[in-house]
Each structure stands twice: as structure tokens, then as C-alpha cells.
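agent> fetching stored inputs for the WTA docking request
agent> found them:
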Amino acid sequence: MTTQIKDLEHYKTMYDESVKDPEGFWKKEAETFTWFKPFDKVCEWDFQGPNIKWFLNGKTNISYNCLDRHLATRADQTAIIWEPNDPSFPARHISYKELHEEVCKCANGLKFIGVEKGDRVVFYMPMVAELAIGVLACARIGAIHSVVFAGFSAQALADRVDDASAKVIICSDYNRRGAKNISVKTVVDDAMDKSCNSVEKVIVQKNTGGHVDWSDDTDIWWHDLVEEQSAECEAEEMDSEDMLFILYTSGSTGKPKGVVHTIGGYMTYTCFSFKNVFQYKEGDIYWCTADIGWITGHSYIVYGPLLAGATTMMFEGVPTFPDAGRFWSICEKHKVNQFYTAPTAIRALMAKGDDWPAKYDLSSIKVLGSVGEPINEEAWHWYDKHIGKGNAPIIDTWWQTETGGIMITPLPGITDTKPTYASYPMPGIQPVLVDSDGNVLEGNDIEGLLCIKYPWPSMIRTTYGDHERCKNVYFSAFKDMYFTGDGARKDNEGRIRVIGRVDDVINVSGHRMGTAEVENAINEHPNVVESAVVGYPHDIKGQGIYAYVITQNKDLDDTFKKEILDVVRREIGPIAKPDKIQFVSGLPKTRSGKIMRRILRKIASKDAENLGDISTLLNPDCVEDLKAGALV
Ligand code: WTA
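agent> prediction call returned; pasting C-alpha cells
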């Protein structure tokens, strides 16, 4: 098992060791897993390529390490607690032995329909246990999974399926969300009608049993395929650098890109970080409220906890169903020890009042985690006082889809915490702040762009099908450094606070959204001439979406606004719908025709008095109109 840090001294020694001799450090951690053939070199890297390899020529299987490796010691221990949307339904407790069997059956089912090593399988499912089973089954046979968040539209799903040339889609019939059942299969049907030419089979998990349209050629029920399969399936021997999964995420430009993670490094880092960041102890019940459609769910619901032999909870529902006490009632019901959620959820529940958490016994909670966006001071204190009762350290964990695992965070009970500060780097992680010319800023009390100086095992290897894009986005801004896209500051004792994106990515309720993506969707409306989208501070969501739209439409009424929202919903999904739409006659542009987003951001953020120099604009006159019509 990977090392668990015991105290501050231990953290400091490990950190020093990891910087002085990164290869020696990671070799030790990686060797705690089962390798079918040992690796012969720890790391090979060059950020110019980029070419990053960890645990070279080692052969292993991550599903074997999540499951088989634990059978001798914890076959009957619960691996996954599945808590249903409807609290009157029973929770499911799946032991390591049962999970192993289910994964093997599913893996055999996938093989039966012709899925082979290297094939891509797209998941479009709610938070049902079959989602975790399915991704582990892919990993077992060497198929590459790509989970698409089930809130995305048919178009967004089709884009991802096409980019990955997926052979199979696995979905559910319906998604239970609070009081509603939302159709999932119809979205897949729509995506299949649009394109998805690479797809041979659609596997449908029966969740509610509601009506679905059926195509005998492509559709197959999960239970028909899986139930009769053998519960044994040997884990495929995989190279450490074989692809484990593709996860699409938004960037500054163009369509979402497929971030690629590979097996050996991801396995080592997610297990190591899970055990340390949550200080998970034998018998603890750990709950991360994320959706497996995002990286947090991949690394800290499925892989990290299972690699560490933990009991991990999956929650099907929403925080406000049947009422705003649901999270806390689940913590009480299952005696949750580590609770990991997003600031947006904390703020939303804080707004419902202190009485909700007060109704429940939360004394089992030892660690409170936060992830996905900066946590504001008010939310931090509320979380500390009303959920942790001052006894559970808050770990504000900073990381990204691309980093694979948590990079900067306090370690509970080991390092100190400070509101809004992610604080300290994990062992093996070397963050630096640079100025816009790439000069490294030394010392404390500084502000700059957050970069990482040396490779770590779970870092992005490429963007699927487009290696140049990976190089341009992450490795070209500054020589020999990975650029995160975030701005950060260091306090006078060296703790790091991540302020937010410095590129055209916005973070809405912890979901990453490219402004260009939203603009492209808005521009699909036939009467939209041009649009520009920026983020603005939003009390609950962290950032809201503000769209400036130039249109030929004469009637600038709510019907037209609704049409625009419908287009965005159709192209991306409801999570990308603008909160505010301002119709304008012009957008501020530089002489080279680039939109000056800085100005738009300031106007949307009620900071229009401070626009700075606008004399270089091609059309400075439009600024007064923009200010006059601002929806603030
Ligand atoms: C932001 C989520 C401040 C950041 C795991 C990053 C944070 C982006 C924090 C990645 C945090 C994540 N404090 N900002 N603790 N955690 N972010 O890929 O801007 O969905 O670049 O990964 O979220 O979002 P992603």
C-alpha cells in the first residue's frame, strides 16, 4: 500500500525527498501495487514534445489492483455503498467480492459483443452502480472509457463519441433526479441519429423500467448481456503507458478536448493522494458527492478509494431532494467520516439555513473536503462551523482534469488550514508562480500564474487525436513547465491560494465551461450575428454566464431570449445556459478585430467605472451603450 503520511515532520521529509529524488520517491510508491511485470525505468520526460512516461515497460491492470488484490484480505468488506435518489429505497452495499464478480461479468459481456483492448467505450449514465462497474470492466479488458456527464445534450454527446470514435455507448433508460425521471436513452437515440457512425452497440441499463424506443440492430439490455456471463475474467496485461481513459473538458478555444490519462501513473498517484489527502483509515466511510462524469468522480469515487481498499459511497440523487437536509441525513445514516463536495453545493445549502444540518448527528465527520472552484470565506466558515462543528479540518483541494489527482491541499490534522487557501503542495508536486514572461517569482507574498515544474505520475499525456493541441495549451506558454491556466497568490508564509482562471474558461457551479463553446452555441441561432460570453461573480454558482449578443432581430423580448437559451441547451446542455443576455449593437474590438473581453468582464461584474484605457479600441463608442444596457 502506498505510504500514509503521519505527521508534519513526515510530510516535510517526504516532500524534500520527492523533490531531491523524484524517481526514487515514486518508485517506492509504485512498487506497492501488483505489477505482472516490473517496470524497468521510473520516468522519462520532455515537456517540449510533450513526451511523458512513467513506470516504463511495467505491465499491470488497474482493475486488478482495485479488486483482485484486495480479495484475500477484504472480500467481504463493503467497497461501494450506493445511496439511492429516493431515501425510501434501500441502499446497496457491494462488497469487494461482489464488485469483482460484477466487473468480471460486465467485462465478459463487453468481450462478447466484440469490445477489444484499445477500443473506446462511452458512458452516458446517471450515478448508478453500473457506471462504476462498467468503467472497471473496461479497464479490466483494456478498453478505454470515456464518461460523458449525463447532463450534456445529444449534440455534445455525439461530438464526444465522434471524437473518440467509440465502438459502444453504455447508457441507462432513465435518470432519477429528485422528483423527476429524466430520459437518458432518448438523448443517446438523438445522438445516434445525428452521427456516432463508429458505434456498433448501445448497452442500456434498466434503471426505472420506463418506456424506451428500441432498435434491434444496435440496442442491447445490460441485464441480457451481463447476467449470464461468467463471474471470472482474467485481467488483461496492460502496459503502464496504455490509455486508461479519455475525459473531455473545456478549454479557451474550440470544442472540448479529450484529456488522456494512462494506467501506471494514474494508479499510483490517485491511490497515494486519496490515502493522504483524506487521511483514510481502515473502516472509514468516505463520501465524495461529485458525479463520475467529471474527473473528481473518476479519481476520488472510483479509482483512488478502491485502489486503497476503502469504502466509497456513490449517491444517485441531488442535495435538495426530498429536502435541503439530504446530504446531512446521508452523513448521519451511513456515519460518513470523510465528506468531499464543491463550494457551489455548500453555498446553495448554506442559503437554506442552519436548521438543516442542525437536525442531524454529524459527529462521525473527521475531514471536510472542497473541490472544483475557489471557496469563499463565508462558505468556508459555514462549512467549518455547521458541518464540521469546528472539529473537522477543511481541505481545500486544488487540481484539474489534466492533473489527474489533487495537487495542492492542506493535509488534515497534519498541516494547518487557512480559509480560501489550498495551501501546500502534495509530495512530488512542484508548483511555481511565474510572471507573464515566464520568470519564476521567488519568495512569499507574490501573485502570478500557476505552473508546475516537474512531471508527476498522473499528469495528462496528450489530448486525444490531437497531440499538438496538448502541447500548445499546456506546454508552450512557458518553457519546461506545465501551465495550469490559473492565477494564484502565495501568502507571506508560502501558502498558495488559487484565485481562478486567467484564460477564457469560466467555472460555473464547479463545471468548466469554455466561453468560445457557449458563444458558438449561441451563434447557431439564425438571428444572432455575433456574441461574446464572459463570467461574472454569482452568489451560489461562483461564476455566472453573461452573454452579449448582437442580433438582427427586431423583437428583443423574452421569447427571443428563450430561443437562445434553447439553442444552448440543445448544443451543450442546460449547465451552459447564460444567466444573463444583453442585446447590444456592437462589441469592443481591438484594431486587429479581437474582442476586448476585459471590458466585457468588468461591465458584467459591476466594475464599469474602472475600464482602464479604451482609446486603443476600434470602436470606443460602443462602450457607453454597453454600460447603459448592462444587466447588473
Ligand atoms: C478550478 C476539477 C480554486 C481551477 C478538479 C482549475 C479550483 C479548474 C479548485 C479545474 C480549488 C479546482 N480552488 N480553484 N480548490 N479546484 N479549481 O478540470 O480553476 O473540472 O483550473 O477539475 O477548477 O477544473 P476541472
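agent> quick read of the result: Residues 96-112 form the longest helix (17 residues).
agent> awaiting further instructions
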